Amino acid sequence: MSFFLEKYFDRLFLLNRSITGEGYRKSLDILSEVLPFKYFDFKTGTKCFDWIIPKEWNVKEAYILTPNGKKVAEFKKNNLHLVGYSISINKEISFEELKKHLYYLKNMPDAIPYVTSYYQENWGFCLSYNEFKKLPKKGLYKVKIDSTLKKGILRIGTFTIPGKSKKEILLSTYLCHPSMANNELSGPLMFLSLYKILKNEKKLNYTIRFVICPENIGSISVLSRFGEHFKKNVIAGFVTTCVGYGEIYYYKKSRNGNTVADKAALNILKNQKKKYKIIDFFAGGSDEKQYCTPYFDLPIGLIMRDMYGKYKEYHTSLDNKSLIDFKKIAETAKLYFDVIKTIDENKFFLAKVQKGTPFLAKYKRLNFPHVSNFNSYKIREKYYSAMLEILNLCDGKNSLLDIAELRNFKMLDLLPITHDLLQNNLLRKK
User: Fold this and answer.
1) Which terminus of the chain, N or C, has less C-beta within 10 A?
2) Domain end: 127, 150, 173, which one?
3) pLDDT tens column, 77-101
């Protein structure tokens, strides 16, 4: 799986992605070789709630020519050199004028920062602070940006894996950053891995919906198209980003903080071997802030392997291939599968014997020990302990996930026990 993900990473990394444009669409088309997208396009000028779809941006060439004839901040060498959505320009200017349009990081002198100006026409270049310090202070600079801003489209990709129910688990990631690895490509690559697992799974109870879009304006567009459907049908969901780097899982709760998405994610995280941190919902961040706006208030959380905005390489050229681990992306896909499986298998049951505990020894399929001694019981202590808890708490008020949380079990471990109880006619579905 790691080689498979790396192959797609290498094809995607150098493309100039933004919220619109050819690089974004080409990236989406590459991912569609695995993910069976249906595309939805939003034309420039389309109103989506309080937002307007902007013009489409494409770039042919961009660079700065120093007074001594050296090309710097060359777009063809690294597309992070150009401020996103820079307008076309071709003129000679002084260093004093030029530096008003230059961006760098003194605290990270070797890094090229990521800068955009989507909604106000502007231009600029990004370079490392070490490169900036070498620029001559005297003489004229030639600045060339060959770009276009014209009417076009913003595209989103979505598809579903149909389940027995029309109720959905929503999975969303973004695809709009140029040449960044963890913050940009780890989410879409995780989708590739997760889809390969899910498509071979027997028919799930819930429909699984995948969405890839530009961050913020993309998820707003998605909500303008599917929001009412989501409000009615999405029972849980997650935004995926920053899953290729870091040793600690981070889970950001939904706005509600106590949805089935939150419960399932926490149940899996606390029953796996890696450290994790829980973050309460806040109104900033990635696309979860759109899905969790008051009107929609969708049960959407966010699983990461390092916190966006917190690791030092974030939004710089240092967030590159050397930073990420493709095994971690595949590992995260398996964790997502467990979370999805937990949500999908979560049900309410009623115990059929409620006047006293059932006489378990008479149910042959349960293999309950007839000779009562410490050793015979201890062999299957966890199994029978869980069985008794299920039978006690299946009163129609607690779901299987609720029971797991109340008694500190991993819910997926309760599934075979629940199956045994159903086979012995000790439980029924509510």
Assistant:
1) C
2) 150
3) 999 999 999 999 999 999 999 999 9
